[in-house]
């Protein structure tokens, strides 16, 4: 008698998988955008434009690296944008008005970010409050707190021409001939490599993914869910602090009451780069690529004459496309 046992058919690969995954598509989008803006505007091809794009990308990229972790848990951190400005204002105030050494100001800037990360993580993980609501509240708190500390005035960290302003050269070095060298991209890539290792090869990373995939299953497996959930927000706070240092180094003055919207660019970049909007999936390198898409659009669209409103619409459509890709991937995985 013939054996009628059915052999499971090989699962068909999605179109996205056959194209090499979402990161491959994002790289292609970056190449197409660069080519398009270069053709439409000769000024876009200038070296100063490249430096401008990278200057803008540093602090957004650092925030995106950090916020990747809460996003993978299925949460979010909306406080990183106004937090960045708050931390920079406080650190700059200590340096410029209290005579604190720059290195101490930088450390304080980062530590305040970590503190708010702990607060966010504790409220989400221990109190079981919605991440959106918690971080929206801390977003409002940091926006007001920074302004109160500096009395509503802008803060300037020491300039690059002074010995105290040497930290600015970490991100942008000016040669004797006047050429600007965007060193910051080297540090950003190095941090992406480090945090990619953390996400893929350490307990913090693996348990972050486990929490986002199935929180209850992770708990039943013996994972200290609350601790690692808090750590995801601590990482986001730490990188928001680093982003504050980068922002202080790249821009001449930090203005209170600003920063709202920075977090959306970082979160949008992470989602464009493949971080799932529902958690459980994502890569740090993908977040960096997504940020470059955001930065290219913000920098390139004015070169072809599009106003700020159109920039927001096009950026929103790109982000919507990334979310749709995420939905299609999840539907394909279930079939």
Strand content of the residues, in percent?
under 5%
Q: Output the radius of gyration.
A: 21 Å
Unreliable spans: 4-11
Count helical runs: 13
Task: Report a brief summary of the structure.
With 335 residues, this protein is mainly α. Helices cover 68% and strands 1% of the residues.
Write a concise keyword list for the protein shown above:
13 helices, 335 residues, 68% helix, mainly alpha, 1% strand, two-stranded antiparallel sheet
Report on the structure:
The chain has a two-stranded antiparallel ribbon. It has 335 residues and is mostly helical. Helix 3 (47-72) crosses helix 12 and helix 5 (102-125) runs antiparallel to helix 10 (225-250). The longest helix has 27 residues, at 308-334. The relative contact order is 0.19. It has a domain at 48-260. Helices cover 68% and strands 1% of the residues. It contains 13 helices and 2 strands, in the order ααααααββααααααα.
Helix-strand layout with pairing:
Elements: H1 15-18, H2 22-40, H3 47-72, H4 80-97, H5 102-125, H6 131-150, E1 173-174, E2 180-181, H7 184-201, H8 203-213, H9 215-220, H10 225-250, H11 262-272, H12 284-300, H13 308-334
Antiparallel strand pairs: 1-2
């Amino acid at each position: 008698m013939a054996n009628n046992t059915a052999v499971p058919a090989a699962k068909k690969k999605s179109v996205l998988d056959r194209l090499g995954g979402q990161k491959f598509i994002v790289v292609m989008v970056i190449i197409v955008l660069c080519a398009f803006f270069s053709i439409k505007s000769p000024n876009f091809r200038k070296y100063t434009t490249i430096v401008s794009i990278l200057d803008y990308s540093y602090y957004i990229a650092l925030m995106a690296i950090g916020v990747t972790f809460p996003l993978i848990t299925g949460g979010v951190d909306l406080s990183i944008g106004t937090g960045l400005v708050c931390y920079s204002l406080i650190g700059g105030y200590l340096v410029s008005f209290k005579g604190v050494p720059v290195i101490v100001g930088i450390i304080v800037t980062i530590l305040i970010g970590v503190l708010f990360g702990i607060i966010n993580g504790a409220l989400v993980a221990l109190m079981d409050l919605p991440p959106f609501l918690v971080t929206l509240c801390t977003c409002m708190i940091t926006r007001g707190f920074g302004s109160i500390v500096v009395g509503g005035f802008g803060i300037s960290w020491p300039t690059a021409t002074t010995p105290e302003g040497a930290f600015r050269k970490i991100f942008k070095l000016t040669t004797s001939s006047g050429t600007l060298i965007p060193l910051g991209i080297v540090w950003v890539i190095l941090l992406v490599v480090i945090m990619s290792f953390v996400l893929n090869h350490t307990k913090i990373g693996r348990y972050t993914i486990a929490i986002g995939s199935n929180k209850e299953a992770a708990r039943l497996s013996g994972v200290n869910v609350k601790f690692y959930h808090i750590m995801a927000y601590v990482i986001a706070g730490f990188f928001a602090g680093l982003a504050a240092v980068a922002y202080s180094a790249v821009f001449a003055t930090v203005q209170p009451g600003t920063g709202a919207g920075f977090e959306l660019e970082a979160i949008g970049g992470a989602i464009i780069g493949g971080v799932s909007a529902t958690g459980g999936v994502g890569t740090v390198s993908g977040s960096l690529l997504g940020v470059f898409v955001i930065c290219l659009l913000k920098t390139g669209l004015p070169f072809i004459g599009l106003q700020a409103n159109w920039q927001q619409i096009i950026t929103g459509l790109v982000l919507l496309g990334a979310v749709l890709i995420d939905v299609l991937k999840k539907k394909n995985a279930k079939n």
